[in-house]
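Entry 12.
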Amino acid sequence: TPENLGQLVSKIRRDAFNPSERSKLVHAIRRYLNEKGLPNFRLEDPLVAERASRIWRNERSKEGLSANAQAALGEIEAARKVLEALRFADGSQFEPSPFFRSQRLSRRFGTDLYVLNDASRPTGSFKERGALVAVRDAALNGVLHVVTASHGNHGLAVAMAAQRLGLRSTIVVPDTTPVVKMNRLRELGATVVATGKQPWRGYEEARDWALRYTFERNRYLERTIEAKGVMRYIHGFEDVVPGQGVAAFEILDAIRALPAEEQANLERATFLIPTGGGGLTAGVGTVLRAHLPQAKVLAVVSQEAPALHFSLIEGRRSEVFLNETGLCDSGIGLTIPGARPFELLREVLDGSLAVSDSQVGEALRLIHRHEGLTVEGSAATGIAALLSGKLPQLGVSLEHPIVTILTGRNIDASRHADVLEGREAPWSESSPVKAGD
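Predicted 3D structure (tokens):
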């Protein structure tokens, strides 16, 4: 049970590790994630503020995809076939998300605006593709129990995938995760643990806790019952690039079903992709670069969580602490971009920009007013980019279509109501369940 899990892990740690071994394990986790020795910055650092106010523009190679990106493209194509063939015990299967032109938002911005509505997915977010592919791979390799850390959306997707594929799941979340997400995790049969000892680094703390638990529990099971690899950690953006990239094929399939003139216009569209750790944007960007070479692909981050944008400008991955009460924290609130996504993004992106909480709030109101949709803050960053006034600096012309992904709908109803009413004061809500350490 959640109440006993902390005591259990503490006991395993006392039995299995002395302080020196535990310290080595923490360093091993950082090396495993390619994060040892990364420079780190506070959100209020003047350098962070200066970088967040700028745009990053990338001069892409004209020689086509590198070997690294070609390999990623092959993995995404394989993941597409997996999802198309996947059938669950109840007879259901994975269905593509709706793709449509928003007439009202198109009139509001004076351009053709299209959206892939991943907020309509069963778990309420885009994360399902990556989780289904990764959890299926784990199950085929004999894993019985999957573990992950998440602000909620990735956790929901992993819990759903585990439930449908017959595995157990444990989801570790920061204690700022919206209650609506934690309740839904439990409804999907997951054991939920909340951590919250390091302000501004909630996701990374939850992730490190979950990795330690997975490594230690595997070691304990191997020693006591000689069972190897029973548990596997599913990383929220390092492990899911192939599955997340399938979203781009859904968009391409929808475009190919349109009239020829509309198709031709969309071949030169600008894609505004909400970005946190970079898994979705890296996967989608790789596919679009191969199939729509004339299109522009831009990453949109929050100024309250600008680690990816800051790292692109700096030319190296960096840790930037975040505002854990920002509107985008529960979706793209990460302090370190993923190692694999970062390398792909440096190649396939045309640029990136950061949007403010006030712009995200206005975008949430526009989406609700014009489309009647309730989405979370991170899902609105593509629309917020249109409000930011920065797109012309990235060579974006509204004469060509704009495409964005509404990445999720999992926002607490009270917070969404506050945003709709213009009440956007700092806000957080915590869970009583804490992880023992």
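Annotation: The longest strand covers residues 168-174. The chain has 18 helices and 13 strands.
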